[in-house]
Amino acid sequence: MTQSRSTRQPQPRLTHPLRQAWTQVVRTARRTTADGLVVGTSGNVSARVGDTVLVTPSGVPYDRLGPRDAVAVDLDGQQVLGTLEPTSELPMHLAVYRETDAEAVVHTHAVHATAVSTLVDELPAIHYMTAALGGPVRVAAYALYGTDELADAMIEALRDRSGCLLRNHGTVVHGATLDQAFDRTAQLEWMCRVWLTAVSVPGRTPTLIPPDELRRAADKLSGYGQPS
Questions:
Q1: Fewest Cβ atoms closer than 10 Å to its Cβ: which of 25, 144, 151, 213?
Q2: Active site residue 89
Q3: Could you tell me the pTM of the whole model?
Q4: What's the confidence (pLDDT) of residue 3?
């Protein structure tokens, strides 16, 4: 899985669907900062529109991003829009879009999730919202950030899941929309905080939700919310 770059001049025009998607990407990236899921310019966000992936640029504070800063690549990693350099974690985002039906990806360095990634190989089913991510959340093997090795490890951890932890690094979560991907990210960080809190009580072992109950929760969650 090798990332390639185009030598042609990126197209300067934002179509209406891409403009809308870019607005959502920036809004979601700012939410990750506001909610303490990232610090500075760490983490990244992307959204897919057809065969085009809009992604946050590398090293630019999210509050400085505007319509003229939009960055987009195709599924081969060739830049088709913008002049800013895409995020260094582009291989992870592209791997998710190639291997799943995701339309949005959120990557963070959330504190509790990162702490959990250093302690276990899988976040146990501490809460029924585990079902919203497909089951107990796996931890991807450590690899250097921005590499194909990390992207490959992430894809393995994401098998049948919509989120995973990255060893000594953070989280990757995908969804059908950016709102869904962000909500799942926030839920994952919350569950990691709950688990860390529970296991810190001396002499006590947290109870976990068994697989059959997780399946029941998944069925119920599929109909959660208002009728569409």
A1: 144
A2: yes
A3: 0.91
A4: 45
